[in-house]
Amino acid sequence: MSFVYNMYKFDEKKIIQDLAKEFKFDVCKITDTKLSVNTGLRLKEFIDLGFHGEMNWLADSFERRKSPLNLWDDAKSAIIVGLNYGPKNNPLEKINKKNLGNISVYAQGKDYHKIIKGRLKLFSSKLISKLSKAKKTKIKVFVDTAPLMEKPLAEKSGLGWQGKHTNLVSRDFGSWLFLGVILVNHSFKYDSQEKNYCGSCTKCLDICPTDAFYGENRLDASKCISYLTIEHKNAIPKKLRKAFGNRIFGCDDCLAICPWNKYAKITKESHFNDNKYNFKLNELLNLSDKEFRNKFTGSAIKRIGRDRFLRNCCIAAGNSKNKELIPMLINLLLKDKSFLVRGAAIWALQQLDNQNNLKSIKKQHLSFEKNNSVAAEWYI
């Protein structure tokens, strides 16, 4: 019995997997930290073509980002954990609800960064205490905020594979996994890389509202609705606005259409409730900065700030065909301090009303508007 106990005690991989379960992660895999040369080359192509848009931090951190060893040269292993956030309903059903502000599944609940990072810190602390003291274990934890390529590591670990839309796909959880990474300064028994099961399917590429994909595994983020509603800090390019529909924070289309979602499971996490943010546009268009911050406390949405959020809501209002929103848009146009909101309000008004009805509003607005890009919205 003693021999069996000691075998279990020092089965490091089992210790890691047991801790993953203890801290309520749905899947856990382990791999080494050496990524293929192609991973870095694909990232460089993405940046060189300018497809990262305004995300200059991707270019600035390229050398560190292309390999975990460039981020921490002592890293020998990567423990990849996945937390299921599978929704109760198909997100594509919300696209036709034009009076709702359509918020991506991942942002429906509390900010996953904080939830996962907190658990990873506890996981890591307990792991260090359980491993051999002679190894002098050192650990670093990451949740989507450091220059680390989680998806290639997750693919190498066998947790899933990167689909043609560049996102991770799992045979057990479909499209709906949040990832966390623990880098460790010594080696373990590694899991095998997962096979790519996309086959000839291109549904994720074909459904994209803005045609953001320029090939399999190649994304022009500057055209992606998720990028534009969250990362983009300026006016939304006019040629893409109608394609937004009612999407005001992120886009789930390429994830939701994946056939592998037939194996997806509804999340057990109370933090990720996909019914929490079913707000109507007429409610959102009235938000002050204070109301915005209060409404989205603890949410990933709060990060973009009220002005960008209202910009997105105005675009959705313009696509809604709901003339009852016109008075709210006029109020934003004439009174809002944000040039982003005023500019988007003009476009929305032009979609909902004819030029003759807007003549007096246009004249009133132009009499005080000092931002040339906002004023130009009336003419382009």
Describe this structure in words.
The protein is of the alpha+beta class and 380 residues long. It folds into 2 domains: 1-276, no CATH class; 279-380, no CATH class. It starts with a helix and ends with a helix. Helix 2 packs antiparallel against helix 7 (112-130). 40% of the residues lie in helices and 11% in strands.
Q: Please describe the biggest sheet, giving its number of strands, its sense, and whether it closes into a barrel.
A: 4 strands, antiparallel
* Proportion of strand residues: 5-15%
How do the helices and strands follow one another from N- to C-terminus?
HHEHHHHEEHEHEEEHEEHEHHHHHHHH
Class computed from helices, strands and strand pairing: alpha+beta
Number of H- or I-type helical stretches: 18
Mean pLDDT: 94
Q: Based on Cα principal axes, name the global outline.
A: elongated
> Which range best describes the helical content: under 10%, 10-25%, 25-40%, 40-55%, 55-70% or over 70%?
25-40%
What layout of secondary structure does this protein have?
Elements lengths: L1 H8 L2 H11 L4 E6 L4 H12 L7 H5 L1 H4 L2 H4 L5 E8 L17 E2 L8 H19 L8 E4 L7 H8 L3 E2 L5 E2 L7 E8 L18 H4 L6 E3 L2 E2 L5 H6 L16 E3 L3 H4 L24 H4 L4 H7 L9 H14 L7 H10 L3 H14 L2 H12 L5 H5 L4
Parallel strand pairs: 3-10
Antiparallel strand pairs: 1-2, 2-7, 4-7, 5-6, 8-9
Overview features:
elongated, 2 domains, disordered N terminus, alpha+beta, 18 helices, 380 residues, 10 strands
Give a brief outline of the structure:
The protein is of the alpha+beta class. The chain has 18 helices and 10 strands. The longest helix has 19 residues.
